[in-house]
Amino acid sequence: MRFKAPGGELTFFSICWMIFAALGIFLFFYEDSLRAKILAPMGLVVGICAIGLWLEQKWSAQLMIFLLVLSIGLGLFAMTKKGMTTPHVIKVLTMGYNIYLLVDWLRLKKDKVETNTTFLES
Asked: Are 102 and 87 in contact (CB under 8 A)?
């Protein structure tokens, strides 16, 4: 396991996810509300996924894709209840773009492993 940036825009988003994790944990101890108690564990899982991406772990990308798909579903549900606003649309589009980046990273990682295996076999 090497500690290496995932590359491209995924590096920026994974750093944002790590900051989200730190803020969630800070709010857990600082604020005594239900929102903080829900945000802290979610932030912790997202932070672990972001660190896993920097350690080039495939499971972290798969878990992050699942969390983002879940978040898109919740975002669309919120838009149907509260009405469609520009910030909601931007959040949902950003989450969709993050899913695209993660799937592309997984695909490139798989291609890289396959090419290394064929090189070793020859």
From this structure: no
Token duo for residue 112: 């890289």
Cβ–Cβ < 8 Å for 55, 3 = yes
Structural tokens at position 70: 């879940």
| Residues of the chain where predicted confidence (pLDDT) is lower than 70 | 1, 111-122
Domain ranges of the chain: 9-121
Q: How crowded is the C-beta side of 66, counted as CA atoms within 13 Å?
A: 10
pLDDT tens sequence across 23-46 = 877 877 888 888 777 778 888 888
- If one counts every other C-beta atom within 10 angstroms of the C-beta of residue 19, the result is 13
Determine which helix (DSSP H) or strand (DSSP E) holds 34, and give its type and residue range: helix 34-54
